[in-house]
Structure formats: C-alpha cells, structure tokens
Protein: TRUD domain-containing protein
Organism: Salix udensis
Amino acid sequence: METSKTMEEPDVGILCYISQLPGFRGILKQRYADFIVNEVDTDGNVVQLTCLEPPPQMVEETKECEVKVSDEKMSESKSYEAEIELFRSLAGDSDAEKLESLISQVDSRTGSEDSASHIVLSPDSDKAHRTAVHNFFKQNFKFLVTDTTDGPDASSKCIRVRLDSGGHKNNGRNSKKRKERGEKPFDSRGSSNWPEHLGKFLRFHLYKENKDTQEALGIIGKMLGIQSKSFGFAGTKDKRAVSTQRVTVFKQQASRLAALNDRLIGIKVGNFCHVKEGLLLGKLLGNRFTVTLRGVIADSEDTIKAAADSLGRHGFINYFGLQRFGTGSVPTHLIGAALLRGEWKTAVSMILDPREGERDVIRNAREYYKESNDIEGTLRQLPRHLVAERAVLQCLKKCPGDYLQALKAIPRTLRMMYVHSYQSYLWNHAASERVQKYGFDQVFPGDLVYCKGDDTEKDTVGVNSECNDDNSDDTYDCSHLDETSGTDRPESKNTLVKVVTAEDMSTGNYTVDDVVLPMPGSRVIFPTNEIAKVYHDLAKKDAINLTESDHSVKEFSITSMTGSYRRVFQKPLDFEWELLAYNDSNKPLAETDLDKISKTRSTNIIKQEEQGQGDEDKDLSDCKKQPESSRNSIGLSTDTNEDSEREAGSEQVFSSNRQETQMALKLSLTLPASCYATMAIRELLKTSTSVAYHKTLNQ
C-alpha cells in the first residue's frame, strides 16, 4: 500500500457525487474566519456567544462564596514554623524554602485563589520517599494538596504542591478514590464552599479562533490553575475555523472565567450559568456551519444556483471526510490495518517514521530517531502536540522492544482512531459502490434501513447507530479532527435495522433517506445485495478477516467491536446560501459571534446591557434569523455587477487582484454530529476538499 504520497479522496473511497451537474471553482478556508462552526445542543438550540459578563446574581453569589473562603482562612491562620522544619529534615533546604514561600503567598493573598501559586519540588526517583512526602502534607498541611508530575528524565518524578481549591474535606486521596472519580485530578473538583441551591457545574460558551478545543481549554486551565481534563465538552471543533461550543467545569466561579477575557487572545468565554451535570462527549445534535467560499468562478450564476438547489433537495453522500484519515502522508487507516493484523512493530514504525509534508522540526526529529534510535534525544526534539509519538517513545524507553505495550501507551481515544479510520475506509468504499450500482433516488432489495412502525416486530437487528463501539467517546488527537463534533453520536440507543424485502418495495414504506451501511463489527449485519462483497474483498486485500481475529488483543480486533450504522445520504438542514461580491480578500464576509457583540457594543450600549441580561434560550432562539440580517449588512449582491462583469458566452472570472471585484458564495447549513461539512461542499463544487488542492487555488 502506497504511503509516501499525499492522500487524495479516491484513496479512501470518496469517489462519487449525487448530481451530474457541473461544478465550479471556490476556495475553501482561504481565511479561518471563512469557516464558522456553532454547536447545536441536544434541544436543537444553536450555541452562540452573546454576553461576556456573568449575570448580576452570579456575581453576588461569587462574593458570598469568597467571604466564606476568607473567613475560613482567617480562622485557620497559624504559624507553621515547626512543620516547615520537619519538612526540611525530610526533603532538604531547597524544598523547605519553596514551601515556606508558598505558605507566605497563601497567608498574604486576598479574595481570589488566583493569587496563590504552586510549587514543584525537586526531582525524586525514590517512590517510597515520594509517598512519605505526600503523607507528610496530608498530616501537616491539610489546606495544601499534592500530585505527581513527570521529572526531567524518565526515571524521576516531581511532586507538585498547591492550595486545595476543594477545601479540607478530601483527606486520604488514595488510588481507589481517584479511580472512582474517573482519574480526574484534585483540582477539577473546585471550591467546597459552594451554595447548596446552585448547580455544581459552571457551564459557559467557549468562542475560539484558529485554535482546537483542547488547546483553548489548556490555555484557560493554565490561567485558572486547573488541568484541561477538568473541563467537559460535547465534541472537539475544527482548528482552522471560528467556533462556539458549550463547556462545563466543576465548581468554578463565573467571575474568575469572565476576568480572563481581557487576557485571552483568540478565545472568549461567556453566557455563564450553573447546571447540575457536566457535559459528556456526544451530548449534542450537531453543528451549524457558515462557510464562505471565495474566488468563485462559474460559467454563470445559474450554474451556482442549480448546484446549490440540488444540494438542498438531494443532499450529499455521507462520506467520512479526509480529516478522518489523518493529515500526514501516512493515513491513519493504514496504521489501523496493521493493528487489525496484529503487526505491532509495523504499526509503531508507521507512527514514528519520517513523513512527507511535515515541518522541519518534526521531520528532523523523526529522521534523528530512525538513524540513531536515541529515544531521549528524540523526545527532546519532538513537539509536545505529537501525543501518540511521544507516548510510544516513552514506553519503548521503559520497555524496549515491547511494541504492543507501546501502542497501548497512546491515550485510548487516540489509539482507537486508527481502527475506527479503517472501518471508515471500508464504509466509504461501500457507499461509493452503493451509489454506482443503485443510484441515489430509490431503495433496492437487500439494502439496510432503519426500521419504521410495525417493522420493529419483524426480522431486525438492534445496535447503536452511528457509534463505533461500546465506548462512544470517539474523539481523537486534535490534529486529526475535522469540522465534525469528533464524536459519532448515536441517533438513538438500540436503533433497529432491517433488510429491505420485495414486500417493503411494494408498500413504499422506505425511501433512500432511510438507507444505512454498517461500520464493521460483531453486532452488525451486512446488506444482502452486492454491496456486502465490497467490505470483505477490500479487507481480504489487506489480509484482514472481518469475522475472525488474527490475535487476542480485543481493542485492536474488529470482531471485538460492536460496530454501527451510518446513513448513506444526508440532506443539510436549514440550508441557505447567497452570492456576495467583494474587493478586498482580507475583508470578512460573515459575522462571527464576537463581531456581533462588538458591533452591538459600539452602536448601542443600552441594547448590549439588555442582551447580556437576557436568558440563554432567548439568545439561542434568534440564531435562525441571522442569515437574513447578515445578508443585509455584509457584502454586495452580485446582481449589481452582473452586466459589467459578464460577457455573453464567457466564464464569469474575477481576478485575484484586491482592487477588482471577486465573487464569494456564503453557505449556512446544519448537519448531524458525525457528518462532514467538507463533503457537502465537495458535492457543490465537484472538486477535491484536500488542503493541498485548495492551497493551489490561493496561489
């Protein structure tokens, strides 16, 4: 299998279109603000950032909480000279001085906990000694907590010490309790001085520009002094975009987060409220996209109109987009195939080996390792965002030659991405075969469909739809994520699927919109027509058996995965489009949430205050009106330029010169969580969605 070239759509089974209409030229993501994503919550509300300040009642509650904390600290004030001297005998002068400095900060701080920092003790390779230090703090400094972080080398660890934001009620943090908390760090639990009438989770809207979700939350967490894993969210959004989504954090004060807005760059938080439960992956209906295609060139406006109307009526083939298969020259589905065959060493090599198209610092680190096998030296060079590579190398340093263990050292959601992408590779090819053989306008005998009505009593198979395995937390390393939620969210639990019969054909109960194809697994059925053969033939070419495993490692075995179903065809919801003319390629053509807030503030302060005090439901209910207001305030209609720019029988071509008029197409559409907006755009343009292709259009 070829791995050295840049991956293209046909390589992963993206072969067909629904309509035979001509396409046209358009540049995707010329600016990151040309791709706006707003999460759609489980109630169908589009999540928008409309207010940066906490409501007045939340501010008052915060003040009450701070008074309680201050009173408690005052009552606990005492001299710790004796305890510090005991610690000196245990840990040495350097660490004792660090502790003394920390306690001074705690004693002198006022109000917010932000003013109290933390300390990291000297590297310690003696586990027994580290345990003694942890126990010393539990017994003598109940207002401080400790945890362990990586030291400067693989053989040592460092103990981190900081003020306990969870109060004094959490003594005895043993490993059992950590497991019961789902391995959350101590600092995810927030303040214990929490009003009983408030929900324990603070929910807020996270707005970010050109940053992935984990990166943005890492920045916020660092400012708050909590780890990024303390946050809950429904899905990871695309990096090269402007996006807004819901986030929850346990027992944090809205005023603390709101105070960060002045310091955050490319990130804003707002729309604060308290809720009883934190967000979990998959808890969303989908995403609302506002996509601007620039530099549009078409035979005529009628070509664009026909393509857009067809997309609205017929939809698109619900392929997994290119991002599902990674961004490098080594596609993730090829690594997945190696894992399914049990070729652990091969899989590790594919993860670590040099690749085309990467930045020099990454390429140099990979080449250095391949030539020298120096793990320590490679780790010093390898950027920290390469999570999989670093995890594999760190494990190989401890356990040389144990390639399976090295693969298991990769975080679960990331390592499962490889197998899931192979399932997606098979699914894409099957979907293409379905379109080529049977078209897109009717159901055929042997197709699989989601059941309706009385058919639930007949020959059916139940399995979670659009969900890859028993663990639906199908989020991956952010570098591999597209504009989907990152989670293949089940449409409903135990959705029933059946094979279409001749009787079904005569009744007309099912349409092509009901047709699904399986993601291979132990609890799915395959179509009984010719499409099933595609799965087995492709897998056989890769030396993979879909019904028997070649090894006993369950998580890398397709027969140990549940499997799922995915709709073959998807129609965009609330689909709107408009043509715009522009002269400046740097001019924004769609308003972001932050633009709307800034615009409102600058034109009418009173209106801004009223909007900030409005309830969340009101804010969200206005979202569907936005395309109309945007149309009135942004850009020019192409109708005004039509006569002067077009000659009979010639293409409507607009120069890339900033001074000349160019055309853009702005699309607004809502898609379910597991769908790729790039695949809808592909159907429209009839061109590749690869990053490499769209870069050439920018030149």
User: Anything to note?
Assistant: The mean pLDDT is 80. The longest helix spans residues 412-438. The first strand starts at residue 25 and ends at 27. The radius of gyration is 28 Å.
